[in-house]
Design a protein that fits this description.
about 170 residues
Amino acid sequence: MLNLNPTVSESRAICRHIVDKFKNQGNKDLMGEGVLERALIEQWLETESHKFDPPSSELVFFLAVAPSLPEPELPPTSAIEESKKKLEKVLEVYDHRLADNQFLTGSKFTLADLFHLPNTEQLMRIDETRNLFERHGNVSRWWKDVSKRESWEKVIQIAKQPPPMA
C-alpha cells in the first residue's frame, strides 16, 4: 500500500524541505535563486556531507561526547589524528574558496554555510580542534561572521536551556 503521508527523517532533507516550504519567509537566499546558484549551493552541501561531516563528526564524538559518557570509551589516538588530517585537508580547500568569497557559495549566507554550524560550534570549543580552524585565516574570518549571526546566537542560547520536563 502506498504511504500518502511520507516521513522525512534525515536532517539535511528536513532542512531542504523547511527552506522550500517557507521560502517566502525569513532568509530567502538559503537555497539560492536560479538554477546555477542552486547548483552551486548543492555542490557545497554535498561537500559538507561527504568531506566535512565525516571527520568533524568523528572529532565531536571522540573529543566532546565520548569523554562525558557514563563509561567513557576513549578512541585510539591514531583515530583522532586521522580525523584531524582529513578535516585539515577540507579546511585547506575551504580557505582557498573563502579567499575570494564571504561565504562558501559567494556573497550570500546559504544552507551550505548553515549545515557547517553545529559541528564547527562544537569543535571551536575544543582547544586541539579550534586551532585547525584558526590556522586558516579565511576559514577563521568566515566562522566569526557566521557564528555571530543573530539567528545562530539564538540557537546557542536555546541549546543551553535545560530540556523541558515531560
